[in-house]
């Protein structure tokens, strides 16, 4: 079952990167919590599929070629940790943007994704979920 969760999340990233946002929401609970880094302009948190969709649209409107690069995944039963890097080109500035790698922790309950939280470091993610995958 856990490998299916990893594959579902990776498939969601692929759909997101292709701009198929509605399809990427498949498997999210109706009341998903989407928690992003405090340093972002609108850190939320975002709640529900509509909240997640609103967050995604903001980033697709701000950046051309906005995409998420998956570096590695770690299957931890109810959690899947995905090390990612974000890339894009500012629509107004034309400046290229690439972030340092950061972990996103996906939490499952009853067969649905109920939470996604971004962290600044592997240490902070590991501490938050009480599991070390490194």
Q: Which secondary structure elements does this structure contain, and how are they paired or packed?
A:
Blueprint lengths: L1 H16 L3 H4 L3 E8 L10 E2 H15 E14 L2 E12 L5 E3 L3 E8 L2 E7 L3 H8 L5
Report the C-alpha radius of gyration, rounded: 14 Å
- Overall average pLDDT: 93
- Tell me about the largest β-sheet: 7 strands, mixed
N- and C-termini, Cα separation? 22 Å
Kindly estimate the percentage of residues that lie in beta strands according to DSSP.
Answer: 35-45%
Tally of extended strands?
7
Task: Describe what you observe in this structure.
- Helix content is 32%, strand content 40%.
- The protein has helices spanning 2-17, 21-24, 48-62, 122-129, and strands at 28-35, 46-47, 63-76, 79-90, 96-98, 102-109, 112-118.
- Strands 1, 2, 3, 4, 5, 6 and 7 form a seven-stranded mixed sheet that branches.
- A hairpin with a 2-residue loop joins strand 6 and strand 7.
Structure described in brief:
The protein has 134 residues and is an alpha+beta fold. Helix content is 32%, strand content 40%. The longest helix is centred in the N-terminal third of the chain and has 16 residues, at 2-17.
Summary keywords:
single chain; 134 residues; alpha+beta; seven-stranded mixed sheet
């Amino acid at each position: 079952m856990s490998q299916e969760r990893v594959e579902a999340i990776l498939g969601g990233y692929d759909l997101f990167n292709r701009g198929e946002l509605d399809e990427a929401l498949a498997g999210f609970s109706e009341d998903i919590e989407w928690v992003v880094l405090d340093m972002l302009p609108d850190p939320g948190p975002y709640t529900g599929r509509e909240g997640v969709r609103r967050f995604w649209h903001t980033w697709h409107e701000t950046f051309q070629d906005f995409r998420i690069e998956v570096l590695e995944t770690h299957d931890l039963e109810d959690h899947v940790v995905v090390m990612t890097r974000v890339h894009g080109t500012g629509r107004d500035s034309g400046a290229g943007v690439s972030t340092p790698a950061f972990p996103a922790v996906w939490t499952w309950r009853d067969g649905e994704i109920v939470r996604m939280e971004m962290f600044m470091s592997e240490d902070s993610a590991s501490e938050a979920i009480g599991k070390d995958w490194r």
